[in-house]
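Notes, Module 5: Reading structure tokens.

Key idea: the token line is not a picture. It is a compressed description, and you learn to read it the same way you learned to read a sequence, by spotting repeated patterns. We will look at two proteins. The first is printed below with its tokens.
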Amino acid sequence: MSRFLAFALLGAILLAGLDLPAQTIPFQVIRTVSHTNSYASGLAWERNTIWVGYAFGNQLEQYDPYTDTRIRSITAPNSNVRGLVFDGMDLWLASWIQPPAPSIFAINTVTGTVIKSLVAPFTAGYSDGLTHDGTALWISDELNHIYQVDPLPWAIIGSITVPSSGSSNPRDLAWEPYANNLWAAYQSSGLIRKHNPSNGQVLGEFTSPYTWSQQGLTWDGWFLWATGGQQPNLLHMSQIDVNPPFVVMKGALTPRSLIQFELSGAMNEAGNIFVVGWSGSGTSGFKVGTAMIPLTLDDFTILGLRLAPYFSMVVDTSGTATTTLFPWPAVPAGIPFWTCGVTLGPSGVVSVNEPVKYVTR
């Protein structure tokens, strides 16, 4: 084979690789939480609570997602709310307003006071999605661009172009810390995509539970949250696990109720033992034999789960396993519990899935 032909074949292979469809990401909805408006357009996670903003109306509502209760509401600077993100101190809001009018606001979540009113640093498109990577803001313009912005000098320090997906995309954004993935919601196609923040490459995608009405997006430390708009009966947001295997609790944590755990998505682990870990404190170590399994939740919390032997099961060939039913004791309402799954193979731990929080009712 000539050197020219070899290079030509290599080029053809590389070009073919660029045309490959994005990897489909498996996912499972863990829970849904109600809100009050049929066009929820922005979501932000703040210290185990979630903020919801609406495209119509100027209220920002804060919810406890584990008890499905509204904590309070504050007034937004306008009625064009889109993206939201909490940066550790303040709640940032992107409004559906074109420059040169101010469209980005920083809000004190304690007082509800607008601290900053800023004009988007780009000249075309509407401000829409918003997230924060620990240092910089990311803002989408609905023209298939996402900008990385330094909030102090208020200057663009980077940008990526993402694949076109109909008009007015992408919508809201979410940052996955540790993995450094940038997630974006696409209304027209109903997709939620994971992007490489360096070049915009689509690393994977899945169809949103809200399909064509997908809007708000945020990351809670372990999971995505999404919500939608433009549907009159759409009054909830969803917590979404995108890292199989998935474990969910079937039944409610009410006195004398019957509980069951179900595992799914363990397609490469059939025949292995699956153990549900259980913790009442959220900080105890999760022990499997002599091994301690620490799960990093954030920079300050190591979340582990104690072994509960009677929750063991064997994963079947479909990647599913289910515990037997067991009664839940008479525990007072409002007590938090965490659960996660550990898959054990012949040589030890195969995988550990993210912990899911539940609250007794």
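Here is the second protein, with the sequence above and the tokens below, as before.
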Amino acid sequence: MLNGNSYRCTWIRPCLFAATFSLIVASKLSASVMRIDGGFDDWKDVRVLARDPKGDAKGAFDITKVYAASQGSILYLRFDTTNLLNIQNGPEAEGTLLVTISLPDSRQLVLDMRGRRAFLNDGVKERIPWTHLRYVVGPTYAQNEFEMQIDLARFDIDRGDAISIQFDGSDQLSAPVRFTFSQPLETPKRRSHRREPGTDVRIVSFNTYFEGLSDPDRAEAMGRLLNSVEGDIYCFQEEWKTEGHGEILRRLMPPESRSRWHIHKVHGNVIASKYPLNVLPSRSDRYAAAYVELAENHLFIINVHLKAMGYVGSEEDRLRVRQANEILAAVDEINKGEYGKDKAPGTKPGIVIVGDFNLVGSRAPLDLILEEKIYGLRDWLIPNLIGESVVTWRGGSRASFSPGKLDYVIYSAKTLIPKNGFILNSELLNQTECRQLKLDFADSKLSDHLLMTIDFQFSDSPED
């Protein structure tokens, strides 16, 4: 923090001027598309705003570099640390990290990372909801690089306005740094919800939030949401107690003619298909697996809902790793040809692993699956239908954890070609789009997760 020493103030002024100048240049160089997605390629043209020595932190977060960029009233902030940590959760002994944004008129917005709250000035008890700030911080898994998005429009910040940024709690910069908003707000990209030519199958993944399919209060919105994307195969999570999903889906999504929904359920994981299913055994109740008969092609679906909560190294995190290994064992059996032997020689198996991975500890559960190169599996980053957000979980209005990406798509790149893919949030649609999809504006509020749609085409020439 600044003190009243005149010599120190005299020394800081030119530093602040230099920092302000470098930030203005950096914001001009920043990428036009910014995503809070756990990847940092969109920061490659943004210059370092501030450097901080290693080893000077009094808590777990030892900041080394800070970057900033903007679009309209939105501040994008990135900081690197020495330790691999979860930004929003961890042992109490690790402490927290505060981000203090000094606004015009002597106001200060404080973001408490581990306290999972935002407040103005000293109003610690007057928490500002994340939705009011369009706040997103990521990644949700443990990392030593973090990025966040904060919309300061409610504080009348716009192009030409200046703020200063400082950290506290675990670590602190030698002096606050100034940032001037200089970039216009990008017009959000609006994508098509339609299938592209050549699409062979459309898969939909949706965590329905505590038995959402059977909740009569959510039935109308649920029906509109599911019908809007016209999936061939639906993967649902959190359907623990409900049974009779075939009949429930007949009411929500009446199939054509006399056809029926084919259902496979393991604990809270439901696979519902327009095509016949062959059930695969599950080693735990955290995933359901099935072989779907698609004309001349093999399609294996693994619907995932890993253990929630915890942080890197916690019991919950270790359990997620074990569950990922169980899924990997199922993938190994599929690749060895233990299922689908009744199909004609020369047909092509494809694998899709989809669902709620709950990566709030380490990234190990995802990496375990992807690092087995022999299987040729890849992670597909799906954007929102509107804009660049990859957030799939938002929580409720009183949720302490901020929105983030918890749902993933993994596919066998040797046999499947990604086509259209999108996250659907009805609250971002305009009136024309709502009419096209036959949705009401608030339909996506029926769950804390957003519905995710992915299309695939089978490759004509599988890779070796």
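Summary for the second protein:
- The chain has a mean pLDDT of 90.
- The first strand starts at residue 50 and ends at 51.
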